[in-house]
């Protein structure tokens, strides 16, 4: 089976492009980006930080880097909420930071589970 794997540097580039897009969406008015789902904003936060976790972790490899990445992403989420305080069309919320953290943690847990399963299959 052929695996589609990019070099780490391409994941880094994709990470920074995605982080920039997430940041832009975080500061522009979201009147046209509403989803007809209860708590859609939290789903957007969860998804954005799940994807950012994936990209950043594909760009690095060690457990130390995984822990660093989690901290960096959480600080990015907190920074977005602080910056939103200065934009009247946006609303800052601790719930958004929690949704960001859950997206990061769910990715890390799934990654750990996949690695655990692969390890035990290859034994």
Structure write-up:
The protein is mostly helical and 123 residues long. It has one domain (9-26, 41-121). 72% of the residues lie in helices and 0% in strands. It has four helices and no strands. Helix 2 (40-58) packs antiparallel against helix 3. The longest helix has 28 residues, at 94-121. 19% of the residues are buried.
Number of helices: 4
Largest sheet: none
Specify the helix fraction band: over 70%
**Strand residues, percent:** under 5%
Strand tally is 0
- Structural domain count: 1
SSE arrangement, N to C: HHHH
Summarize model confidence as the mean pLDDT.
87
The low-confidence parts are none
Q: Globular, elongated, flat, extended or rod-shaped: what is the shape?
A: elongated
CA radius of gyration = 16 Å
Distance between the termini: 20 Å
Identify the notable features of this structure and list them briefly.
mainly alpha, 4 helices, 72% helix
Brief sketch in words of this structure:
The protein has 123 residues and is mainly alpha-helical. The chain has helices spanning 8-27, 40-58, 63-84, 94-121.
Protein topology:
Elements: H1 8-27, H2 40-58, H3 63-84, H4 94-121
């Amino acid at each position: 089976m052929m695996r589609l794997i990019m070099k780490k540097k391409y994941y880094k580039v994709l990470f920074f492009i995605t982080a920039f897009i997430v940041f832009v969406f975080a500061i522009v008015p979201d009147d046209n980006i509403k989803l007809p789902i209860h708590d859609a904003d939290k789903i957007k936060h969860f998804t954005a930080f799940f994807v950012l976790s994936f990209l950043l972790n594909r760009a690095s490899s060690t457990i130390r880097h995984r822990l660093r990445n989690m901290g960096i992403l959480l600080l990015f989420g907190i920074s977005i909420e602080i910056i939103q305080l200065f934009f009247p069309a946006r609303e800052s919320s601790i719930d958004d930071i929690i949704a960001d953290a859950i997206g990061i943690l769910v990715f890390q847990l799934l990654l750990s589970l996949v690695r655990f399963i692969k390890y035990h299959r290859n034994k």
